[in-house]
Amino acid sequence: MFDWKGYLDLANKLIKQDINVLINEACWRSAVSRAYYACFHKARAFAYSQGFQPPPKQKLWKEHKEIPHFLIKQVNSNLKKVGVDLKRLSKNRRDCDYEPLVKNIKSLAESSVMIASKIFQGIP
Asked: pLDDT, tens digit, for every residue of 10-51?
């Protein structure tokens, strides 16, 4: 079984690359994406273990909004924060994957990886 922490470890390595400007930006964008997916899959597994009902297979894309909302609705304040932070990472990932210009991309990548590390620790 794949350990999603591998994506977070890769994100940490990607933010430390120093090759050239074009490749650096690709590394930083990829780091944001990998950090998000590491957290999304860990949160997804947790949500499933807590009774989250996934959408039909053809609509699994909805989980990207539903899982953070599931966490935000939890009684545990740490899980609520994880849900809020997961939403933030999701937005960062969409920006990095789809926007041709992302301001302060290196800082965004570094903060996204830091947030992802906290999320990973906050999910049981």
From this structure: 999 999 877 766 678 999 999 999 999 999 999 999 999 999
Q: What is the CATH number of domain 5-122?
A: 1.20.120
Closest CA to 81 of 72, 91, 89: 72
Q: With beta carbons less than 8 A apart as the criterion, state whether 118 and 42 touch.
A: no
Nearest to 85 by CA among 14, 32, 36, 45: 36
Both tokens of 102, joined, read 């992302």
Going 95 to 98 to 102 to 105, the CA torsion angle's sign is positive
Is residue 113 within 8 A of residue 11, CB to CB? The reply is yes
pLDDT tens, residue by residue, 77-116: 999 999 999 999 999 999 999 999 999 999 999 999 999 9
Residue 41 tokens, joined: 């899959």
Q: What's the DSSP call for residue 55?
A: P
Q: Which residues contact 87 (CB under 8 A, 6 or more apart)?
A: 68
CA distance 124 to 76: 11
pTM: 0.92
